[in-house]
Amino acid sequence: MFQLNNFYDNKNMKCIGQMGCYQIFEHEKDLSVSPLSAVNAYFASEMNVRRRQVLINLNGNNGAVVQAGAMQWMLGNVQMNTGVKGVGNFLGKMASAAVTKESIVKPEYVGQGLVMLEPTYKHIVCIDVSQWGTVVLDDGLFLCADNTLQHKVVSRSNLSSAVLGGEGLFNLSLTGNGIAVLESPVPQQELIMFQMQNDVVKIDGNMAIAWSGSLNFTVEKSTKSLLGSAVSGEGFVNVYRGTGTILMAPTA
Question: What is the pTM of this model?
């Protein structure tokens, strides 16, 4: 049995969202400032530049996989394991990490208690992966997820989509029933969601942060000819075809 004081009743800590076992807390102001940094801290808070943290509630029947190094503290009967099942599994994780820019080992937390993640100035976005089927993430967005989800490395359909689209050749994908928590460059209210039924979306630049694994991603000329692309000033665009969902950060 434990008791947590000056947290839920802390007026400077505001719960701004919740999904599943994940609660998102935001520090309303940076109270640990000096006279030299007070002005910057004040205007940062006014412009929504604030520290945010994710609290994971474990009840004994659930578990969470967390980006390596992201844990700040844990309370209660909580156990952490590496999720590595032998040498072969470790080598596979090494290969996946090398191509997706993710950490080699993502610790798994189980038990009964609380796990608080490190503060971040990025915005926190939760998604229900079961509504996507399979979701593919842009590099560096993964923060934590239910341990019921399967992690897999997926490759682009062709080399041009990596070289011309400003994307990596490989990405992390998540499949199954569970919640995933992402670190987004923009807040949830700025994200544009495209829901497609046998249609196409063309995006000028690396602005999609997540998309359905069912979509076919390529990079193509903005017009039918190279001359037309050059004259229009658009050049190449990222093209997503099929049925599925895309989350796009319009100001990133």
Answer: 0.84
